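Notes from the 1:1 (GR / supervisor)

We went over the backlog. Supervisor wanted to see one worked example end to end before approving the batch request, so GR pasted a single chain during the call. The sequence is below; no edits were made to it. Supervisor asked that the structure be written out right there so they could see what the output format looks like.
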Amino acid sequence: MKSYLAEKMFLQKDFPLSITHAKQRQAMVPHYHDFIEIVLVAQGHTIHNIHMQDGREVSYGLIQGDLFSILPYEVHGYSDSKNLVIYNVALHPELISAELPELSRLSSWETLFNPHPRKFRNRVHLLPFQRSGAEQCLKKAILALSMQRPGHRLSAKTQLLEFLLIAAHVEPVEWKADVDSINTHFFESLEELEAAPEKPFHLGKIARNAGMSVSGYTKKFREMTGLSPLDYCINLRIEHARKLLIETDVSLSEIAGQTGFCDSNYLIKLFRLRHGITPSRYRRLITSSS
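Structure output shown during the call:
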């Protein structure tokens, strides 16, 4: 069986951390490693195959925003991947030994890293705004590790800890080992929503295209993301609006139109509920800090 070992994984032997961001092949054969692996699905979908200690192989669907861990010597692989891009964080526990007592108190830490779960560890699903924050941390850590300027280890570790804080504050989502959880049409419908959340939202049409009833689609959507399809779409629109506030100087009414909101007042209301401040105030804070 294929293995990935720390002695070859970590370029700096006294700093056991490696972070990559890459598109994956359609399948990855079962393998194990002697370090902790944390995976964040940045794009696409796949089937995650876990080989249990009792000899069973259990398969689950993974979608954009899913985050999970694989502990040392656990065997897993991927199959039927489509447009799969992942962040892969490899680390040795000694790297964060000083912070472990505090980290272990967080709500989802047990979910992600308990070596003796009752059944198997659950995943967490990052909503769009959480995913943006997590990806930003990982991008900064990758940059620090690649540049290797003075202080790069401190910078990379700081970003890693921030990433772990985001992950450990997210409510866990139970793995569902059933046929519906690996419905390719369902995955594709979610990716279409991710790609263009500003388009008119018609749940009946979305469910029909996925080959499911509205109730069945909604139930599966909640199981995979923790939200209803509409709430998830709204989260995507708010996150798109937040990025436009940062990256452009277009008016709020234009942003509302580009992100699928009926008017700027509705965007202001939902943005404030999500972020605690109005879009205009958020833009001013970002502008002044930069």
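Supervisor's comment: Residues 2-177 form a domain with the Jelly Rolls fold (CATH 2.60.120.280).
Batch request approved.
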